[in-house]
Amino acid sequence: MCHVIVTCRSMLWTLLSIVVAFAELIAFMSADWLIGKAKPSSSEDVDNRTGGSQEPYHPTLGIYGRCTRISHMQLARRDTLCGPYAENFNEIASGFWQATAIFLAVGIMILCAVAFVSVFTMCVQSIMKKSIFNVCGLLQGIAGLFLILGLILYPAGWGCQKAISYCGPYASAYKLGDCSLGWAFYTAIGGTVLTFICAVFSAQAEIATSSDKVQEEIEEGKNLICLL
């Protein structure tokens, strides 16, 4: 018989698992890993209302994508174009970034699988007599290790030609040059930290759903058990 068990700790773990998976996925897909050095507006890019030239803009570069500004013939009309600069995996700018993409992709796939399974932990608390929370926590720990490897290798690729074109000639491995780190990199780091927190917190979720109070509710014949 299926017992629906909902506790504060199990729900918090489920929500955190979903948030972490989405945060890492969004960061991976974003082009805002590196913020390039300022590009001056061309002499044609003039604001019609003020007659002055507009402020310089900062192109951004991701693991496989980029955002840059495209100028049109009309005055003061400029569009920001974002998309992948690499049409396939081999065209990613650096071998280190290729490794980063692999490690991050594997970690994110594991996190997405755990996030999907976590939704069903209200009804299913064990698989083959093993706690589903402990299994998911172990998987989250493994995913966190993949994410760490990816984030460690990523700065090693700052010396590639693509990064130098955005960050200037002084850019090299683990040296940003004229670039700065974008929100996507910090989001990936924050998501990695939360991944390990989720892995640890899964044990608390398991304790909460197997507590004596829950067992008493089950023995009383209740199918829906909600504990704060």
From TrEMBL:
Transmembrane residue ranges: 12-35, 96-120, 132-154, 183-203
Gene3D superfamilies: 1.20.140.150
Subcellular location: Membrane
Top-level division of the source organism's lineage: Eukaryota
A GO BP entry: single fertilization
Keyword field: Fertilization, Membrane, Transmembrane, Transmembrane helix
Membrane topology: Multi-pass membrane protein
GO cellular component: membrane
Family to which the UniProt record says this protein belongs: Belongs to the LHFP family.
The protein's name: LHFPL tetraspan subfamily member 2 protein
Species in which this protein is naturally found: Spheniscus mendiculus
